[in-house]
Design a protein that fits this description.
Number of helices: 18
Number of strands: 25
Shape: globular
Strand order of the largest sheet: 2-1-11-10-12-13-14-15-16
Radius of gyration: 24 Å
Helix content: 25-40%
Structural class: alpha/beta
Low-confidence stretches: none
Strand content: 15-25%
Mean pLDDT: 95
Distance between the termini: 73 Å
Bound molecules: adenosine monophosphate
Length: about 550
């Protein structure tokens, strides 16, 4: 084989902040902080503080390969940790504070974190958990001397700003192999222990480049992105890397994620695009309805993490004139796998058609290969009809789970494909249509009913605030769909009315057998509806006519 003669320089995470600091020193990172109102600086100043932090971490004895954990909101200190930890060759382990106690215990001990940096909001978690976490773990409060808690339950607590104080503003990043780990994020998982996706420098840089390569308008120098998606969940969809690389500003919302706070922050900071899961946009849309407008300057809303219902896409695009981009991905995919970016020809089609494209999960980003397979593992046609389990591969898709052989074996097949656990169709022009999670499909009389489809339809009913469909056992059909509904504010729909509404839009055999009204739906740590908990809550439920 004739080898190319190009230099083999490693891709590295800290090279991104070097680049942004050099080319876009004034492009701002703005943070709504817990203690001090709005904090703002440019990528130039961020880079200098990141160098100081890297010195501070090294002075504490953090070594290449060590795991340093974070328990924090979206803010500039969290952003700095991403780069400083990777810059000294260590691994930034972002922890989701919404994990259950047993999961929090597991992830810190499994990762063997050496240091844990936390926002003051999460001090109660640290106090509660420290007895269950391994010895030798040290703690850093992400604040300055003025706000340091004087708490005897937190002895030997280190202060973030003291780590930086007086340190040089330049750091020679530790040069590591581009395949070395730089980030770690555990999936909260619906069964069993959480599993760790271990990202490398190479995977993170390639992911950022491939996201920008979709041509998305949010990533232009000088534009401003608001990541509502947390830095503790799959690197906030890679935004802390892709935004600086593109010269795009970052507006971090901190702890206030309700519709009104987001609306005000977007407007005050001239945000162009906002990124988050559908539940977040329910809150923002309510606020927009009250104020009868879009936050000034908002051009684009990115919806991912769960299916974006068609009514939501229509509300943003038709009623308010903001563009929606729908994306699909997974923690194990860094996470972006597909986006609903349209080709120029598709953009010229009717609005109805454009919205129909966007109601799918979209098309793959560069380097992500996808296929659907049947129960025997045979590849199915991409004809928009056949549905099967979705498998993926690519340079920013997990090749296994951190220190977990059993989970790795279950997820990766002999050909190196990763099993997503999603059931999907793929159209001839490459649009991914997610049918369901394998575990959430309703198996009725040998046919599959998609819970996602039913939810999307029901959500368009104005009297439904939120809803979820789960399978319940049925003696004849095996399983039947049950629609669980949270009523919209000041609405009181009847079961019959809702079933009639859904019945007009699906085949008769797909109509849910019953509706139950709930005060709220259980959520997972990542803001998705937890169907597992919902199934447990409704375990004793019997369909009408089957009680007793
Ligand atoms: P997580 O790793 O926690 O981000 O969860 C990944 C899973 O979320 C995927 O396997 C899908 O089941 C689901 N998911 C993510 N994005 C979407 C989307 N746009 N539509 C439907 N499901 C999604």
């Amino acid at each position: 084989m004739l080898q190319g003669m190009m230099q083999d320089r490693p891709l590295s995470v800290p090279s991104i902040i070097d680049y942004a600091g050099e080319l876009y020193p004034d492009v701002e990172v703005v943070s709504a902080t817990l203690e001090d109102g709005i904090h703002r600086y440019g990528y130039g100043a961020a880079r200098r503080r990141i160098a100081q932090l890297a010195h501070g971490l090294r002075a504490l004895g953090v070594k290449p390969g060590d795991r340093v954990a974070t328990l924090a909101w979206n803010g500039y200190r969290h952003f700095e940790l991403y780069y400083a930890i990777a810059g000294i060759g260590a691994v930034c382990h972002t922890i989701n504070p919404r994990l259950f106690e047993g999961q929090l215990e597991y992830v810190v001990n499994h990762a063997k974190d050496t240091l844990l940096c936390f926002d003051l909001t999460f001090a109660p978690i640290v106090k509660k958990m420290q007895g269950q976490w391994h010895d030798g773990l040290r703690y850093v409060a992400m604040t300055d001397a003025e706000y340091m808690p004087n708490d005897e339950e937190l002895p030997e607590l280190l202060c973030y700003e003291s780590l930086l104080a007086g340190q040089p503003e330049h750091f020679e990043w530790v040069e590591v192999d581009e395949r070395a780990a730089a980030g770690l994020c555990y999936t909260s998982g619906t069964t069993g222990d959480p599993k760790g996706a271990l990202y490398s420098h190479r995977s993170m840089v390639l992911h950022a480049l491939c996201c920008i390569a979709t041509g998305i308008e949010s990533h232009r120098a000088g534009k401003r992105i608001l990541p509502v998606v947390p830095l503790f969940h799959v690197n906030a969809w890679g935004l802390p890397h892709s935004a600086p690389l593109a010269g795009t500003g970052l507006i971090f919302p901190g702890a206030k994620l309700d519709g009104a706070s987001l609306f005000d922050l977007m407007e005050a900071e001239a945000v162009n695009s906002a990124w988050g899961v559908p539940t977040v946009w329910l809150g923002l849309l309510d606020e927009m309805k009250k104020r009868e407008r879009l936050p000034k300057g908002l051009e684009m809303v990115l919806i991912g993490g769960s299916a974006a219902p068609q009514w939501m896409i229509e509300a943003f695009e038709r009623d308010y004139g903001a563009e929606v981009i729908h994306g699909w991905g997974m923690t194990e995919m860094s996470p972006v796998g597909t986006t609903s970016m349209l080709s120029p020809g598709m953009k010229a089609e009717s609005q109805d058609q454009r919205i129909a494209y966007k109601a799918t999960q979209g098309r793959r980003v560069f380097t992500v290969d996808m296929k659907i397979v049947d129960a025997e593992g045979k590849t199915l046609p991409q004809d928009g009809q056949a549905s099967g389990e979705l498998k993926v591969r690519g340079p920013f898709i997990a090749s296994g789970y951190f220190d977990d052989e059993a989970a790795t074996k279950a997820a990766i097949d002999a050909g190196g494909w990763f099993s997503t656990g999603d059931v999907a169709k793929i159209t001839p022009d490459g649009f991914l249509q997610l049918v369901d999670r394998t575990k959430d499909l309703v198996k009725s009389g040998g046919e599959w009913i998609s819970s996602i489809d039913l939810e999307n339809i029901a959500m368009a009913h104005p009297a439904i605030g939120n809803c979820a469909v789960i399978a319940v056992p049925h003696p004849k059909w095996d399983e039947r769909p049950l629609l669980c509904v949270v009523k919209a504010e000041a609405s009181d729909p009847s079961k019959e009315e809702i079933l009639a509404y859904v019945g007009e839009r699906v085949a008769k055999w797909q109509i849910p057998d019953d509706v139950v009204f709930l005060e709220s739906l259980p959520m997972t740590a990542t803001g998705k509806i937890s169907k597992r908990t919902l199934r447990q809550q409704l375990e004793g439920y019997r369909l009408p006519g089957m009680e007793g």
